[in-house]
Amino acid sequence: MRIQITMLVLLLSASIHTSWADSNEVNLYSARKEALIKPLLEEFTTETGIKVNLVTGKASALLKRLVTEGRNSPADLFITVDAGNLYRAREAGVLQPVSSQQLNAVIPANLRDADGYWFGLSQRARPIFYVKGKVDPKQLSTYEALADSQWKGRICIRSSSNIYNQSLVASMIAAIGEEKTEAWATAFVANFARPPKGGDKDQIKAAAAGLCDLAIANTYYFGNMLTGKDQSLKKAADAVAVFWPNQDDRGTHINVSGVGMTSAAKNSDNAIKLMEYLVSEKAQQWYAEVNSEYPVREGVPASKTLQSWGEFKSDAVELSKLGELNADAVKLMDRAGWK
Ligand code: FE
């Protein structure tokens, strides 16, 4: 009898232990829209049997939530866009380092945090868009040259509160220093066609509508306008073309969407499995294509639409540097009068 009880206790504790350690779930907070990630997560579940619980929200709201929840957060992973936001998450203490040979081998070093706090999953560039027929691309060369007075009243770009612009300016500080970047920003702002308003798509729409001749926007907005169902957006996108700036020096500014493991992660093995799945060839192709982005994994082709804009040299600056320089960039833009 006594032996039987001991056996029972052993069996019970073994089964409790198993179910605890093998929790077949992973919890993901994502600042990306559900449609951009859900089918991929379902595929991951089919392949691994690991269930993914997805919470979506705005980047800043999710970060705030992670900070508030602290150690009690149910989240294992955090997906957000822009190295500036990923850096903020690391600084806020809500991420922990991950060491994965696979992630390090597949993702170029400049597109991930050197200490493993976050990893790029897709790339986007922030080039210049010019109105076809109004601007000869031969007139264009670099971001720096947009400060030239020939562009007075001809440039549309969104506000300085936007992280994409902050990262662009941070990349210029990294390349040419703060002093030159501030002089550039002051002259650049003087060339704006209107006080900044709207998002990236609105800049392309404004250019197409004749309000300006140049617009700055992320490539996926342009790609989604071209391939989406909205005919008026497609028409606006058809009126402009991509110009890749700084091809003779550092390259065009790029950024990433990325993922990091939370400090509170309880399902860390599953979390790493999901991170590794997201950089698999199949996942890379789908994840990049569904939002007109470029894969981070070499050898995975971009969509036909993106390929039609031609190859370009991208700025190889370590993206974490843009996070480090974010506060300087914000102050600089403010001094330059960039609303
Ligand atoms: Fe965006």
Write a structural description:
The protein is α/β, with parallel strands linked by helices. The chain has 2 domains: about 1-125 and about 255-305, Periplasmic binding protein-like II (D-Maltodextrin-Binding Protein, domain 2), CATH 3.40.190.10; about 125-255 and about 315-335, Periplasmic binding protein-like II (D-Maltodextrin-Binding Protein, domain 2, 3-Layer(aba) Sandwich). About 45% of the residues lie in helices and about 15% in strands. It contains 15 helices and 11 strands. The protein has helices at about 1-20, 40-50, 60-70, 85-90, 100-105, 165-175, 180-190, 200-210, 220-225, 230-240, 270-280, 280-290, 305, 320-325, 325-335, and strands at about 25-30, 50-55, 75-80, 95, 120-125, 130, 155, 215, 240-245, 255-260, 295. The strands form 2 sheets. Strands 1, 2, 3, 4, 5, 10 and 11 form a 7-stranded mixed sheet that branches. A 4-stranded mixed sheet has the order 7-8-6-9. Strand 1, helix 2 and strand 2 form a beta-alpha-beta unit. Helix 6 crosses helix 7 (about 180-190) and helix 6 (about 165-175) crosses helix 15 (about 325-335). The N and C termini lie far apart (about 80 Å). Mean pLDDT is about 95; it is low at about 5-20.
